Fold this protein.
Amino acid sequence: MSQEISENQVVNKSVNNENAANELVQSEQNSAPQNQEDNFDNLQKAVQILAQAKQLDEIQRYDKALSLYRQGVDMLLEEMIVRQGTEQSRSYLRDKCNDFMNRIDQLKAMLQNQRTEDKENEAKS
């Protein structure tokens, strides 16, 4: 029962984060020239990937979460390079990228420590 509750909470948090990011995408789409609208698909894909990474992170599937965080951040950074956008949206994306990159660094260190501990435990056995 507690497993079901925690998974539901993870999904609800991810949906809230994805909704906020989708609102940003929508506001950008409304102010974008027609020829840039096709490029918003990439931004939406990045949001979806990062939401999935966050879900995996919260249920402690760190290897897969790390991979998806990297993929999502790469897509966001690419969008920042090719898209004009408002200063507010660029600032928001920059802050989000920094947050995700900090989490990537934390996960990398945590996974490295875990691998080191596993090797030490194997050596003791």
About this structure: Residues 1-5 have pLDDT under 50 and may be disordered. The CA atoms of residues 9 and 58 lie 10 Å apart. DSSP finds four helices and no strands in the chain.
